[in-house]
Design brief:
By secondary structure, the protein is of the alpha+beta class. The chain has 3 domains: 5-94, Orthogonal Bundle (Arc Repressor Mutant, subunit A), CATH 1.10.10; 100-192, Winged helix-like DNA-binding domain superfamily/Winged helix DNA-binding domain (Arc Repressor Mutant, subunit A); 200-282, no CATH class. The protein is built from 12 helices and 8 strands. Strand 6 and strand 7 form a beta hairpin. The longest helix has 28 residues, at 191-218. The protein starts with a helix and ends with a helix. Bound molecules: zinc ion.
Length: 283
């Protein structure tokens, strides 16, 4: 199995973003000569959520749900207990990976990533929010189910769903359970609204960068000759200080904007390219 970004993201989706290492270990075992055997009874209990267990069997169930691992029933020679002999379905894996390509582009597109960073105000939870979005796209509707599928803590799932809601790219319906009188929330990904918000984000950033580039190209800037971080201003702003640094009083010198212009141009080009990819994804 290749150790590349798409394989890793696919396995994170199948077994949860924090379970990548474990999942790879299980797959390695599955592919080894010895393979994996599990107790059929325990497997059934875990599948039915009658018991919770934190071992390879949990990962096996996730691989099984994604149809990339399957088993044959057998009887253990010594104990006569029913066991499951597991194997890894390479063909199915390749097929599922192909199907995942588009979703991988969603979570790796830098415009979408930067947009999500803005929603979160940080890079913390960035990976979690991406896999929650994929779960919603796949039609998983409740916080509990998303938690089961991704292994992301329930509190975090809830917090991030509301962040998506605040950014209006996900919405929910509140229903009252007629028996328990409890409210349940079913969530939905709002594709149209997401496309609109991400387009707005991209357009605003592009405009800002193009305006800055335009200014740098058409104006002469001055900076403090001792410490550029002290001051940077255009001719008018600098003349207000009579071309002396307002912080340290050393002279201001003409600013060489080449590096900044180059960087801006590069960012603009990359953004345009990624936005084009984003538009292709939306088709
Ligand atoms: Zn200075």
């Amino acid at each position: 199995m290749k150790n590349n970004q798409i394989t890793n993201n696919f396995l994170k989706k199948v077994a949860g973003p924090d379970n990548l290492k474990e999942t790879k270990k299980v797959i390695k075992k599955l592919k080894s000569k010895k393979g994996i055997e599990t107790d059929a009874e325990i497997f059934e209990k875990i599948s039915k959520k009658e018991i919770k267990i934190d071992d390879d069997t949990r990962i096996l169930i996730k691989l099984h749900d994604a149809s990339i691992a399957n088993y044959q029933k057998d009887t253990a020679p010594k104990t006569k207990k029913e066991i499951l002999r597991w194997n890894f379905d390479d063909e199915k894996f390749t097929q599922k990976m192909d199907e995942f390509t588009k979703q991988n582009e969603i979570i790796t597109n830098s415009i979408i990533t930067d947009f999500l960073k803005e929603i979160l105000n940080s890079e913390l939870d960035l990976e979690y929010i991406k896999f929650i979005i994929l779960a919603l796209i796949d039609g998983i509707e409740t916080d509990e189910e998303i938690h089961e599928k991704t292994d992301i803590k329930l509190n975090t799932v809830r917090k991030l769903l509301y962040k998506l809601h605040d950014a209006s790219i996900a919405n929910y319906k509140r229903n009252k359970d007629p028996e328990t009188q409890w409210f349940t929330y079913t969530w939905r990904f709002d594709k149209e609204e997401s496309v609109e918000k991400i387009t707005e984000f991209y357009t605003a950033r592009l405009k800002q960068r193009e305006e800055l580039l335009d200014e740098l190209e058409n104006n002469l800037y001055f900076v403090c000759c001792m410490e550029p971080a002290h001051f940077k201003g255009n001719y008018t702003e600098s003349s207000e200080y009579e071309f002396y640094c307002p912080v340290c009083d050393y002279e201001l010198e003409p600013y060489d904007a080449e590096k900044e212009k180059k960087l801006l141009k590069r960012r603009i080009t990359i953004d345009k390219k990624n936005f084009q990819k984003f538009e292709e994804l939306c088709e």
